[in-house]
TrEMBL record:
InterPro entries (UniProt xref): CC-FHA_domain (IPR052642)
Keyword Coiled coil part of the UniProt annotation: yes
Protein's recorded name: CCD27 protein
Key word Coiled coil present: yes
Organism, scientific name: Pitta sordida (Hooded pitta)
Gene giving rise to this polypeptide: Ccdc27
Length: 188
């Protein structure tokens, strides 16, 4: 009976502890539900706040992007204006170079024409030179034949000796004058 009463006391203590624990559990569950409700309310507020903040952040980002794009557009317009100016300058330079090329081409054609004329004149001069050389050769040949006949006539007089060496034109002229003097006197 002592053991039973001891076990009953322990059972009563444990039942009391179990009731107390259940009571605490219910109180904790109630607090947990309250906290969950508060948390849901805060979460809803936070979601609505974050949604608004996200919208505001998006608006701020879009405005920044707009400013950045506007700056890029301004820079590109400036670059486009510079490029257009450069293109106009280059077109002017191209026009000037084309004019210079045209003038140069005309000069080349004129020089080619002048070269052809000079070449034609040079060919004509070469032809004339060749004809002159041929005529000179003929005249030289005739002159040599005439000279040799004069020398023969000058030294064919009786008692005269033939030349021992080649005579110069002055010597031939002198011999003709000396030997020709008696003949001239005779004829006169």
């Amino acid at each position: 009976s002592g053991a039973i009463s001891s076990l009953q006391r322990q059972l009563e203590i444990q039942e009391s502890q179990l009731r107390r624990i259940r009571s605490e559990k219910e109180m904790l569950q109630r607090q947990l539900r309250e906290r969950q409700d508060e948390l849901q309310a805060l979460s809803a507020k936070f979601c609505s706040l974050t949604e608004e903040q996200r919208k505001e952040e998006m608006i701020v980002k879009m405005e920044e992007e707009n400013r950045s794009l506007h700056q890029v557009v301004t820079e590109q317009e400036s670059q486009l204006a510079e490029h257009n100016k450069l293109i106009r300058e280059l077109q002017g330079t191209i026009h000037q170079l084309r004019a210079e090329v045209g003038i140069g081409h005309r000069h080349i054609l004129e020089q080619e024409q002048a070269r052809k004329e000079l070449q034609s004149q040079a060919e004509a001069l070469q032809h004339t030179e060749l004809q002159t050389r041929v005529a000179l050769e003929r005249i030289s040949s005739k002159f040599e034949r005439c000279r040799s006949k004069i020398i023969q006539a000058a030294f064919s007089v009786e008692g005269s000796q033939g030349p021992r060496a080649e005579l110069t034109d002055e010597e031939v002229l002198e011999a003709v004058q000396v030997r020709g003097s008696p003949k001239l006197s005779f004829q006169q």
